[in-house]
């Protein structure tokens, strides 16, 4: 049994008996987050891509905690160059960590970190399948809808799907509903909405639409936790 907590936007913490796993820790500058980066205890930090609202405080938290950042190779190298410990992976690859298994999935998006007036490109963005205590969490990252989500639904028994619904930069709630039909998760939790005006979405309507199609969904409050 592990505990999943939402910090707002796409930032989550998974607490397991073998360590804490932090996902896309955008806390500083996140208008919805109330938790401070220096209070977070993490052993591993999973980062889907280099955009500021996902890489967030990952490097600082990794350094403070001697934690390892798990990310696509180019982004992992970027984090190492900033002084963090990192474990590089890439799309389609899986690795057994002390806490469980991590597999990288594709995400239809971009990946770059700000540098001066431009960017450092940080490779391809990804999503993560995280299997802890026999439960599989699919953390989609920032992505548009893609038909291979159907394949993920066939290959994996997904217990919890964390899906963006805010539109503009990612799929919206309508496309996310299609994603739920492809993935067939036991529970869907929406993310990446209402942090900024550009990504307004009605999470309650999304939850109702999932339920009407026979899929369980739940919109978490910021700092709310569930047992997984
Ligand atoms: Ni992004
Ligand atoms: Mn984003």
Mean pLDDT: 98
Helix content: 10-25%
**Which hetero ligands occur in this complex?**
nickel (II) ion, manganese (II) ion
Main sheet: strand order? 6-5-4-3-2-1-15
Which word captures the global form?
Answer: globular
Unreliable parts: none
As for the CATH topology, it is Metallo-beta-lactamase, Chain A
What number of structural domains do the residues give?
1
Supply the CATH superfamily name.
Answer: Ribonuclease Z/Hydroxyacylglutathione hydrolase-like
- Strand residue percentage: 25-35%
Description:
With 228 residues, this protein is an alpha/beta fold. It has a single domain (3-227), classed as Metallo-beta-lactamase, Chain A (4-Layer Sandwich). It is 21% helix and 32% strand. The protein has helices spanning 52-55, 58-65, 73-81, 149-155, 173-183, 203-212; strands at 3-8, 11-16, 19-23, 44-46, 68-72, 85-89, 94-97, 100-106, 112-115, 118-121, 126-132, 135-139, 160-164, 187-191, 225-227. The longest helix has 11 residues, at 173-183. The N and C termini lie close together (6 Å). The model has no long low-confidence stretch (mean pLDDT 98). Nickel (II) ion is lined by residues 49, 51, 54, 109, 142, 169.
For the structure shown, list the relevant keywords.
15 strands; alpha/beta; Metallo-beta-lactamase, Chain A; 32% strand; binds nickel (II) ion; single chain; binds manganese (II) ion; seven-stranded mixed beta sheet; globular; six-stranded mixed beta sheet; 228 residues
């Amino acid at each position: 049994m592990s505990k999943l907590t939402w910090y707002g936007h796409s930032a989550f913490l998974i607490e397991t008996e073998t360590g804490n796993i932090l996902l896309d820790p955008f806390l500083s500058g996140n208008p919805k987050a109330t938790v401070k980066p220096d209070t977070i205890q993490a052993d591993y930090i999973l980062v889907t891509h280099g955009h500021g609202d996902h890489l967030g405080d990952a490097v600082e938290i990794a350094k403070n905690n001697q934690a390892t950042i798990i990310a696509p190779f180019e982004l992992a190298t970027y984090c190492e160059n900033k002084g963090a410990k990192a474990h590089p992976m890439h799309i389609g690859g899986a690795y057994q960590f002390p806490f469980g298994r991590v597999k990288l999935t594709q995400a239809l998006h971009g990946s770059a970190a700000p540098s001066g007036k431009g960017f450092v490109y940080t490779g391809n963005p990804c999503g993560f399948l995280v299997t802890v205590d026999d439960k599989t969490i699919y953390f989609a990252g920032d992505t548009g809808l893609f038909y291979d989500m159907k394949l993920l639904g066939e290959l994996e028994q997904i217990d919890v799907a964390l899906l963006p619904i805010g539109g503009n930069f990612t799929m919206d709630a309508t496309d996310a509903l299609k994603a739920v039909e492809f993935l067939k998760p036991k529970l869907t939790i929406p993310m990446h909405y209402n942090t900024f005006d550009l990504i307004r979405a009605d999470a309650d309507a999304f939850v109702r639409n999932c339920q009407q199609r026979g899929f369980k969904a739940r919109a978490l409050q910021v700092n709310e936790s569930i047992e997984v």
